[in-house]
Each structure stands twice: as structure tokens, then as C-alpha cells.
Design a protein that fits this description.
By secondary structure, the protein is an alpha+beta fold. The chain has two domains: 12-87, Ubiquitin-like (UB roll) (Roll); 96-171, DNA polymerase, domain 1. The chain is built from six helices and five strands, in the order ββαβββααααα. It has helices spanning 33-40, 96-103, 113-126, 132-138, 149-163, 165-171; strands at 12-18, 21-27, 59-62, 65-68, 81-83. Strands 2-1-5-3-4 form a five-stranded mixed sheet, covered by helices on one side. α3 packs parallel to α5. It is globular, with a radius of gyration of 17 Å.
Length: 172
């Protein structure tokens, strides 16, 4: 899908590293990162939920931090590294949290899953969660309308236990 801009609108050059690949493009100054990802770069994994930063369906990682793409202008990302759900899997296969979501059946309709996984990856990297309650609190910006929360928490907890002995000790 191409976005057609008014002839006098003007665009700005932006360079980002997206899922490990450097990209250069021109973008209208009012284009959100979410619209750029979905409409211009054909990456449908990042979802448009509320378009107000309240549901977390559009969560991506910018510089390793979880960010709502619907609240970010694309032009403000110049020079930054962005990872979407499409960029989490590596040469060895799925990211450990993607595998854990499958193992724990942590999705139902799947609409929120990309944002939940991106947020969970950042949560694990942040290292602030030491209990199920803290995982729930730190994931509270991501809404699952189907109610798969217990399985989402279990998937995140599983990855944390596998990767960090201190979490297992704190949780017991």
C-alpha cells in the first residue's frame, strides 16, 4: 500500500536499522512509526489496536526499550535501531519467548501477541521482575482482550527461569 501525500506536503529523509537491516526512506512528518511499519514497510506483525497508546498491541523495541509505535513519529526515529516481532527470531529459530508463548498457549486470537512478546522481551532484559505479581504489573500496558494473562505470565516466567537463576530463587 502506498500513502499518497499532498504535492506540497514535503517529506523528510529518515535512516533506521530495522530488524538488523539499515534502511533509508522519505516519510511525511506526520506519519507514525506504526503506519510506517504496517503501510510502507509491509510489516503487519505490529498491530493497530487503540491508536492512543493504551493497549500495547503496537509495542516494538527501540534501542531495546518497549515503545508504543502508535505514539511515535517515524521522523523521530532517525538513526535508531528498531526491532519488531518479525525481527525477533534468529538463525536458530524462534526467540525463546516466542517458543514459550507456544508451549504455554499464551495466545487465543493472537491479535495482541506480537506486542505482548515484544514487551515481554524488554521486561526480561530490564531485569526488574522478581515475581509473578511484578511480571503482571510490568506487563500492564499490554491488554489481552481474550484474557490469556495467566498463560502470558507463565511464558515470561518460564523464559526468566531458564535464563536467570536468581529469578527462580526469588520466585520460590
Amino acid at each position: 500500500m502506498n500513502i499518497h501525500y499532498p504535492p506540497d506536503a514535503g517529506t523528510l529523509a529518515v535512516g533506521i536499522t530495522l530488524n538488523g537491516e539499515p534502511l533509508q526512506f522519505d516519510v511525511a512528518p506526520w506519519t507514525t512509526l506504526l503506519d510506517l511499519l504496517r503501510n510502507e514497510l509491509a510489516l503487519p506483525g505490529t498491530k493497530k489496536g487503540c491508536d492512543h497508546g493504551q493497549c500495547g498491541a503496537c509495542t516494538v523495541l527501540i534501542g531495546g526499550q518497549r515503545i508504543n509505535a502508535c505514539l511515535q513519529l517515524a521522523v523521530m526515529q532517525d538513526g535508531k535501531g528498531i526491532v519488531t516481532i518479525e525481527g525477533l527470531a534468529g538463525d536458530e529459530g524462534l526467540h525463546p519467548l516466542q517458543r514459550a508463548f507456544i508451549e504455554h498457549d499464551a495466545f487465543q486470537c493472537g491479535y495482541c501477541t506480537p506486542g505482548q512478546i515484544c514487551s515481554g522481551v524488554a521486561l526480561i532484559a530490564e531485569g526488574h521482575a522478581g515475581s509473578r505479581d511484578e511480571i503482571r504489573e510490568l506487563m500492564s500496558g499490554n491488554i489481552c482482550r481474550c484474557g490469556a494473562y495467566p498463560n502470558i505470565v507463565a511464558a515470561i516466567e518460564d523464559v526468566m527461569r531458564r535464563s536467570d537463576r536468581s529469578y527462580q530463587e526469588a520466585a520460590e
